[in-house]
Every structure is written in structure tokens, then in C-alpha cells.
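Progress report, Aim 2. The chain analyzed during this reporting quarter is listed below.
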Amino acid sequence: MGHEPGARAASSHGARGRDGEVADYLSRSMLAFVTADTQREILKIALPVSLESTVQLSLGFINQVIVGVLGTATIAAVGLANNVLFIGILCLNTLGAGCAILASRARGRGDEAAVRRIVSFFIGFASVLALALALPLGLGATPFLRLLAADPEITTIGGPYLSLVALSLPLITLSVVSSAAFRSMGKARIPMLVTIPTIALIPLLSWLLVFPLGMGVVGAAVAALLAQGIRAVLLLGLLFASRWGLRWAWPDLTQIRPLLAQAVPLVLPLFITEVVFSGGVFLFALLFERLGTQELAVFQIVSNLEMVFITASAGLHFAATVLVAQAIGRADSSGVWRVSRLIWRMGLISAVIFGLAFALFAFLLPLLYPNTTPQVQQWAFWAVLLNALFQPIKVSNFIFFGILASGGDTRFLLFSDFATVFLLGLPLAWLLAFPLGLGLWGIFLGRLLGEETLRIAMFLWRYRGGQWFRLDRGAKALATD
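Predicted C-alpha cells for the chain:
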């Protein structure tokens, strides 16, 4: 099991000799060296990922501001369509997580041949699965939104937008898996250097297509599709056709079985977990939509702005996923605990800093959304401040999700998401918003208190129990080329 070893017994009573003092000094110096070395490994992954994620979400936020010029109904419609796409993205992102965990474990035990097979398998499987989900969603976008949206205007605006951006789902998935492969190899800067300039094309193309060319929200969808296509092609090319990547190595039939034996129990619960989580986010959006178009617009504004600042700490989540998995692959129990605790402490510091920045952005909302109503701007101002208070809890949940997933404790993650979202979060939000008459504040409070607070309590209980990882998991599989 993954229990942390107990502290060593105290030495015999009496004064220490000089040799004992020297030994203590050397021990403290070695611990400081190990901690500093671990911090460098964490930052080597975390900083590029955080910068990449923050820039990507910031550009997405800028794109929302561009689209938001078209009015409150457009913000609500595009936001609702993006929430639908968000479910697919989160679910398929689990393939990237599974690839990173298994490849990192293989790299931790020095099996580079297994790394090549794992990455190749996940790239191929992700392509097929993402395409199978994207085509039905793209073809049935308008009827699907018609079933969900009470306001016909939202369906009219959001349907054509969703039908196009749904086609970007396979491209995004391939980029996510390719990026995960680079990070598991310790090359987190490569996806950052590709993602930032390509995603920067989205607001530029969006402005050009929406306004000078007069394509409206459809232009924003086309811009996203083009930029994601360029990103996916570049990342795949660098992964399999450059000196920084690796050789394509599709596993044969005898190798696929042990690979599936590791991948399915790891990825399938994560996939279902993301269905539960993203489905919960979508149901929260529907609760806001039931209140009215203005309330839904507030939810979309706050959610998109908050994601920019939460993803500033996203690199720590990926660092936990990779480095904890590598420690498990090395059978290094003390390394598992040392890395995970250090990442959490760094996450709390990061959350306080960026939570404050998030709160300060509330004062810029009238400048960012001048064409929304004063009521929307006022509600969004206080909603930003409320959510900023919970940043340390949300970032901690983000990090512990990566830690527990690296240990293969995916069934617990599935149970925790179901309990926090459907057993407490959504019922509490509905109760506060409608029977008790708190409106949108009831939904925000229900989600923050019922979902986020319960989740961190469950994660801490599970983490401290030490039952979430085994050092020998996956150590023998894929050992031969």
C-alpha cells in the first residue's frame, strides 16, 4: 500500500556528540538539496503548462469579449454552446491524462520502448473516439440546443456556432494527447511554444471574420476551427517527425492486451468522472438559464474569467500527474509523499496570488462588457468576488485530482464527483435558488459550498489515508519491446 512510513524512533537520551551534530547538519543539507531539486522539477513542468494554459484561456476570454460586442443574448448562446463542447473536451482530455500517467510510470522505470508504444496507442485511439463524438454533435447541434434552451433566440444563435466548433473536438484531443506525451518526457516547453502562437490566431481571426467580413458568431467558430487545426498538425509533426519527439511504435496484438489492462481501469473511471463533472457544470448552466438570459450571461462571464486565473495554477496539476507517476514507477514511496505535499503547498500560494488578481478584475467588467446591461455588470462584479474567495479550495481540488489519478485511484475520483455534484451541489443550488428565492446567488452558493467544499474534504481524507497508490502497479507490464 501507499502508507507513508512512520517517523524514526528518537535517539537515546543524553548530550549529542560532535559526530551527531555533523550528521544532523548533513541530513538537513541533503533534505534542502532534495527539496530544491524537486522544486526545480516541479517548476520545469508547471511553469510552461501554466503559462500555456493561462495565455490560452486569456485569449479565449478576449474572444468572448469580441463576441460579446454582439450583445447579451449572443454571450448566453455562445456560452451555452461552449458548455456542450466543454463536456466533450473534458471527457476526451482523460485520454491525455491516461497517456501522461502511463508514459510517466514507464519512464520512471526506464522503459523507453513502452513510452513509445503508450503514446502511439493513445494518439490512434484518441483520434477515432474524438471523431465518433464530434460528428453526431456537429450534425445535430441546433436540434440539441433546441431541447435545452427555453429561449428560441439562444438556439438560433448557438446552433450554427456549435455545429462548427464541434468539428474542432478531434483536433483539440490530438493536441492534448500530444502535449501530455511531451510533458511525460520532460519537454513541457514544446507544447507551450506551439500552443501560444497558434491559439493567438483565434481572437485575430475572430475579429476579422466577425466584423469586417460580417460573419457574426459563425466567424468566431471558423476562427477556432482553423487555429486548432494548425496547432494539432504542428504538435503531431514535432512528436513523431522531429528530434525532440519519439518514434511511432504501434503495439502488436500481444502488447495491446497488457496495455489495455492498464489503460482501461485507469482511463474509464476518469472518463466517467469527467462526464459527471462536466455534466454537472452544464446542469448548473441550465439552472441559470431557467432564471433568465441575464443570469446565464453572468454565469458565462464569471466562469470564463475565473478559468483564466485558475489555469494559472494548472501547471501544478500536470506536475503532480507526471512526477507522482514517475515516483510510483521508480517504487519511491517517500518521493510520492514529498512531491505531492510540496506541489500542494505551492498550489496554495499560487491560488492566493491569482485569486486576488481575479478579484481585482471585477472592477474592469464595465470596460470589458460595455454592451451588457447594468444589472448583468453588477451581478457579475459580486459573483467574481464571491468566487475569488474560494480559489484556494478550487486549486487544491485541481491538484489533488491529479495526485490521486496518478496513483490509479480513479474509482474514488468518480465517487467523489458524483457525491459532490449530484448528491449535494446541484440539489443545494436548486433549493437555495428557487424554493428559498435566492436566485443566482443560491446557485453560486450551492456550487461553492455543496460541491467544492465537500470535494476538498473528501480528497484530504483519501490522501491522508494513504490507500490511493501502490508502488507495484503497472511495474511489470510492457517491459519488453
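DSSP finds 18 helices and no strands in the chain. The chain has one domain: 38-465. These observations will guide the mutagenesis work planned for the next reporting period.
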